[in-house]
Amino acid sequence: MECIGSESDNVENVETKGSETCTKEVKSDIESDKPTDNSLGDTSQSTACKISESAEEASVGQANGAPQETLEVKVIYNKKKYDVNVSTDLAIPEFKKQLQGLLGVPASMQKLMYKGLLQDNQTISSSGITKGSKIMLVGSTLNDVLAVSSVSKQDVAEMEKAATAKEPLCKQKIHRKVLDKGIPEDAMPGIKNLKEGLPPVPLSGMLNKHGGKVRLTFKLENDQLWLSTKERTEKLPMGSIKGVVSEPIEGHEEYHLMGLQLGPTEASRYWIYWVPAQYVEAVKDAILGKWQFF
Length: 294
What we know:
This protein is α+β, with helices and mostly antiparallel strands and 294 residues long.
């Protein structure tokens, strides 16, 4: 005996099958729209590349924009301590320039000591300096140098009087105090009416206005003149010397007295006595340049 379903059941079966067929067709359409394995691989590779590039750009941005690491050190100068913030990757020459702005000591006249003399090819970090390190600064300001050559009010009055009377330098009272003592025993031989280049050794055996020994060393590669006395050596940049005057010493023309103008006025001249005559023009040439003689 067959069981025949009702017409409504047949309709539902048809609708269900139609629904399933429709669903399959839709899935098929969706699957056909999906990218192939290759296209997926390309997309992931592109995404990874973009992430890598973004990370690299971020790294560069941090390197350029991020503040450099700094630390605080103590600089000891003239028995005083100064707290200074300095970048760890700063080169020693740049650190000297920083200290020049803070303390007024020209960078070319500085010596920095930390477990020995700091070299210009070092940086703060490579020299072993850490937070709280104590760095010794040895050097002199131009004012210190001028103080050595400073003159009293009486000396200034005498110089003004002599200038008015056009009295030769070697006859002025301020210079006679040194010249009357005679030629130093260790003076270098002087030759008048002769011009020679600078010798390969420092000029020595000369005196300053106090009668102390003076030696001149020309560091032309550094554009510096090293002025040495028994007490210390001053490393003067050539550009800090405003002028040079000289005159033969009467009765000993093979020698000159010479004044190095270290400040804006004639009163700031550093006087040197018994300079060998044959080297005078070479000294002026080294300090001021040939163009000064026209």
